[in-house]
Amino acid sequence: MRRGSMEYWPHRRAKKVMPRVRNWPDIAAPSFTGLVAFKAGMTHVGLIDDSEESSKGTEVIKPVTVLEFPRVFIYGVRFYSRKANQYTGVTKDLYVKELASKLGINKTSNTTDKLEEVKKEMSHITNVSALAYLDASPLGFGSKRWMRFELDVGGKDNAEKLTFIEQWLGKEVKAKDFLGEGDYLDVKSISKGKGWAGVIKRYGVARLMRKATQKIRHTGTMGAWHPPKVLYTIPQAGHMGYNYRSEMNKRVLKVGTAAEANQINVKGGYLNYGLVKNDFILLEGSIPGVPKRLVRIRKAIRNKTVAKKPQLTYISTASKQGAA
User: Fold this and answer.
1) CATH topology of domain 30-69+174-193+241-324
2) Rg (CA), the chain
3) Which stretches of the chain are assigned E, i.e. beta strand?
């Protein structure tokens, strides 16, 4: 009898360190709808409960996750098109010439100087997004190579999106530029990898009777006689963890700058991470992944709660070294 969940399927390893984002929120105001960060660790805070629970108006203790932001720059624009009811995907990418050469992009002829030419063909464009890269060197860990990714942009139409991206070409994007305290975010990360695992750890099946089967931590039956094959629903040993996972509607309790990092740094630093030195945010609750794991955040796509600025009373900076 299986006791494991098949909510997530298949159980396979993530292919890339950069989590994928398949959907973006539809926002009328021109702004970035997401960003990238690194998970530092967890602590707890005290705040005045502003929910409709029985504890409303009193001080409550909440666990929070600390996310630190690398340096993120906008280096180009991406255009999508659809012609004759046929989706053609990416039509053209235009890059900032100075940044393209540093990123190793060979198509230096596709520079942002041609934006005026593209604007004349906006009738064929179905979407416009920003091309960005992150520089993790100020964090003191991670890849020394700049990682490129795509950022969605809000706006009423493509012309408004393009105008917004033009203002940010070659500039650095910070967390405070697209979110505020009390906002709700969706977090996309990769869960902790646990390597090869048996059926009991992987699916939670019951231990067998040794006298009946001569085996204990094993799958009892591999399925019915017909169909004459092993179905994918049968619990089997295999790789566990390091999967793409999403957490919806995580509330932002604090948005801080590098100058305010000492307010949230715990004594001795966060386990397996160290001290936060750059811009950061505090998210209510936990998120998937281990410290130093790359995380993608976006504005909540299903949230219906009105954002209210939280009233923090204190932030715990007690050492986490004994909590391992």
Assistant:
1) Elongation Factor Tu (Ef-tu); domain 3 (2.40.30)
2) 24
3) 34-48, 59-68, 71-83, 86-95, 125-135, 147-151, 172-173, 184-190, 195-197, 238-240, 244-256, 280-284, 294-299, 312-315
196-240 folds as Ribosomal protein L3; domain 3 (4.10.960)
- Please, are residues 188 and 19 in contact by the beta-carbon 8 Å criterion? yes
- Record the tokens describing residue 159, joined without a space: 């012309």
Residues 257-314 have pLDDT tens digits of 999 999 999 999 999 999 999 999 999 999 999 999 999 999 999 988 888 899 999 9
Query: And the tokens for 258?
Result: 């590098």
In the chain, ranges of CATH 2.40.30.10 domains: 30-69+174-193+241-324
Instruction: Tell me the CATH architecture of domain 71-173.
Output: 2-Layer Sandwich (3.30)
Instruction: Provide the whole-model pTM.
Output: 0.90
Give the C-alpha separation, 205 to 203, whole Å.
Answer: 6
> What does residue 113 show for φ and ψ, rounded to 5 degrees?
-65, -20
Number of other CB atoms surrounding residue 61 within 10 Å? 11
